[in-house]
Amino acid sequence: MHHMDTADDRPLRVRFAPSPTGSLHVGGARTALFNWLAARHADGTFILRLEDTDRERSTPESEAEILRVMQWMGLDWDEGPYRQSERDDLYRECIEKLKAAGAVYAAWETAEELDAMRAEARANKQAPVVRGRRDHTAEEIAAFEAEGRTPVWRFAVPLPGETVIEDMIRGTVTFDHAQIEDFVVARSDGTPTYNLAAAVDDMLMDITRVIRGEDHISNTPKQMLVIRALGGEPPQYAHVPLILGTDKKRLSKRHGAASVEELEADGFLPQPVRNALVLLGWSYDDKTTTFTMDELIEKFDVSRVSKSPAVFDMKKLEVMSGRYLRAMDEAEFADALVDWLASTGYFEGKAADAPDLARRTAPLVQRKLSRLSEYDRLAGWLYRPLEFEPEALAVLEEDVKKSIQCIGGGLGRIEVLDDFTVDNIKDALSDQLHIQGLTAREFLEPQRIAVTGQTISTGIYESLALLGRDESVARYRQALGRLAEKWTGGE
RNA sequence: GCCCCCAUCGUCUAGCGGUCCAGGACGCCGCCCUUUCACGGCGGUAGCGCGGGUUCGAAUCCCGCUGGGGGUACCA
Questions:
Q1: Cα A273 to Cα A256: distance, rounded to the nearest angstrom
Q2: A1 Cβ within 7 A of any nucleic strand B atom
Q3: In this structure, what are the phi and psi dihedrals at residue A189, rounded to the nearest 5 degrees?
Q4: Residue A187 CB lies within 7 Å of the nucleic strand B
Q5: Burial class (CB in 10 A: 0-12, 13-18, 19+), A401
Q6: Nearest-CA residue to the C1' of B7?
Q7: Strand B within 7 Å of which CB atoms in A 337-396?
Q8: Which residues of A are known catalytic residues?
Q9: For residues A180 and A217, is the Cβ–Cβ distance under 8 A?
Q10: Residues contacting residue A10 through CB under 8 Å, at least 6 positions apart
Q11: A279 vs A243: CA distance, rounded Å
C-alpha cells in the first residue's frame, strides 16, 4: 500500500486508552503493542490514558491490573497514566466553548421519546438517527425545568455534509452526516460522554496519531467533528482490524484465554506473547516469523497492518512459546521457570528445597515444554511419593507379565550400578533391552512408568540419575509389588 | 433495518496488472534422527468465495452477489 504518510513532521505522539472495566484483552494488548511500537520506532511519545468516565463500570482493581500487564509486556509509557475522571474541568470547559459556538444544543427528549423515534425510523427502514427538537418555546423549556427535567447536550451535526477519514490502514472512509445522529456530548448531569472526552483529550494531549480497534471507526467522524468545532485539527487515524476467536466471532472470554492475565497464568513468557500478537494483522515480509523487541521497533509500520480481522490461534502461540523457551540459555530458562512456578504458588506446601529441585530439573524439561505451565505434567512426580496415573497404570496392566519382566530386568541392572550417572544408567538399560530382545519403546516405557507413575515425564535416564540409586530401586520395587498383586489376583 | 469495513491454503499471511499453473509459517499426513515421551531434519497435503466486466494479460482494477466483521446508548 502506498498510503500517504501525511506530510506531518511533528514528532509522533500516540496513546493507548483502555477503559478500566476488566483485565486487558488480547485485542487491547495488541493495540497497546502497536501504539508502543509506533512510538518507539519513530522516537515518539507513548501516552497511557485511562478512560474511566463510566463511573459504574470502572474499578481501581482493573486499572491496577492493566498497568501491571502493560509492565509485564514491557510496554512502558512516557506520559500518564492520565485519568479522565481527573480531567472533568477540562471537559466542562470545552462543553461551554461548544455551547458558546452554537455547536451543541440542549435536548429535552425523554428516554421513551428517543426509543420511539428510533423504533419508528427503523420501521420505516430509515437510519435510526436522533435529532433533538431545537424549536422549543421559552414556555416549554420553563415547563420542563419546572418538572425537574435537565437536558443533555447534543452535538448539532452539520447538514448536509460529510466527514472523511483518511485512515492509514483502511484508506478513505466517508460518513454522510445524515447517518450520524446528534450524539450526546454532555449527559444531563453535566458529565462528558466518551466521544467528547476522547476527542478533547486527543486534541489537548496533542495526539498526532490514533491507533485503535476498528470498533471505533464509527466514533471517529463524531470525534473529528468535536475537535474541529473546538478549533483543533484531528489526528491521523489508523483503525486496526479486530481479533476473532476460532469461530470467527469477536474474541471473548468464552474462547478460552482471552486476556493477557490468563496467558501469563498459562505459562507464556512476554516475548512470545508479543511476537504472536504483533503477527495478528501485521507482517514484515513473506517469511519472517520471529522478531526480537528491537527488530520489531525497527520494522514495525502501522500502514502495513492488514484490513481484515485475524483469528487468534492458541496453537501458534504455543509453538512460538516452545521455540522461545528452547532457545533460552539454560540459566535464563531456569530463572524464568522457578520465578513462574513461585508466582503461581507451586512451591507452597512442598519441601523447603522444592525451588532448588525445580532449578535442577530445569534442564530436563527445557526442550519438552511449550509453556511453563506444563512443568508439573512432566516433573510433578518428583515432588510426591510414587503414585500412578490411571492411564499409566493401564499401560502396565495391559500385559502384566511383560511389564514385570521389563521392570524386573531394569531393576536387576540398576541396583548393582555403582556409579549412578546418566551415561552408566543408559548403558546398563540399553544392554538389558538388547538382552530381552525388545525395542526401546517397549522396554523403556515400563521403566518410565515404574519410576514416575506417568506416561509422559522427564527423560528416563536423567530421571533415574536425579533420584539416585536408592530411591530409584525403591520405586522399582514398589511398582513391581503393585504388579505382583495384579498378577496373582488376575490369574 | 440503517451505516461502515473486510474477503488468498483449516489458521496467520506474502502478493500492489505479466517474474504466481500463487510464496512462507503453524496445523495435519508421511519418512528420518534420537535404542524412551519430547526436540530436531526432510518431504507431502491444502487456497485466490461466486458472477460479470476492463485489459494483449487479473489473485491483483471496476461492478454486482454471497459470506463475514463492526457500529447503531445520557457504555467505552
A1: 15
A2: yes
A3: -90, 5
A4: yes
A5: exposed
A6: A308
A7: 367-368, 370
A8: 253
A9: no
A10: A206, A208
A11: 11
Question: Does nucleic acid strand B have an atom less than 7 angstroms from the CB of A304?
Answer: yes
What does each of the 491 residues of chain A score in pLDDT, given as a tens digit?
333 444 467 899 999 999 998 889 999 999 999 999 999 999 999 999 999 988 888 899 999 999 999 999 999 999 979 999 999 999 999 999 999 999 999 999 999 999 999 999 999 998 899 999 999 999 999 999 999 899 999 999 998 999 999 999 999 999 999 999 999 999 999 999 999 999 999 999 999 999 999 999 999 999 999 999 999 999 999 999 999 988 888 887 767 668 999 999 999 999 999 999 999 999 999 889 999 999 999 999 999 999 999 999 999 999 999 999 999 999 999 999 999 999 999 999 888 999 999 999 999 999 999 999 999 999 999 998 888 888 888 888 888 888 888 999 999 998 888 888 888 899 889 888 888 888 888 889 899 999 999 888 998 999 999 888 889 999 999 998 888 876 665 44
Q: Is A379 exposed, middle or buried (0-12, 13-18, 19+ CB in 10 A)?
A: buried
**Secondary structure (DSSP) of A63-124:** HHHHHHHHHHTT---SEEEEEGGG-HHHHHHHHHHHHHTT-EEEE---HHHHHHHHHHHHHT
Residues 390-429 of A with CB under 7 A from strand B: none
Q: How far apart are CA A32 and CA A37, in angstroms?
A: 9
A217 touches strand B (CB under 7 A): yes
Strand B contact with A112 (CB < 7 A): no
Alpha-helix runs per DSSP H in A215-288: 220-229, 260-265, 270-278
Distance A23 CA to B60 C1' (A): 41
* Interatomic separation, CA of residue A474 and C1' of nucleotide B10, rounded (Å): 49
A198, with CB counted inside 10 A (0-12, 13-18, 19+), is: buried
CB A218 under 7 Å to nucleic chain B: yes
State which H helix or E strand residue A429 sits in: helix A422-435
Protein-contacted bases of chain B (C-beta within 7 A): 1-8, 10-16, 23-27, 35-40, 68-76
- Residue A429 amino acid letter: L
Please check whether strand B approaches the CB of A308 to within 7 Å. Answer: yes
Q: What is the CA radius of gyration of chain A?
A: 32
Q: Report how far residue A223's alpha carbon sits from residue A192's, in angstroms, rounded to the nearest whole number.
A: 13
Strands A45-50 and A79-83: parallel
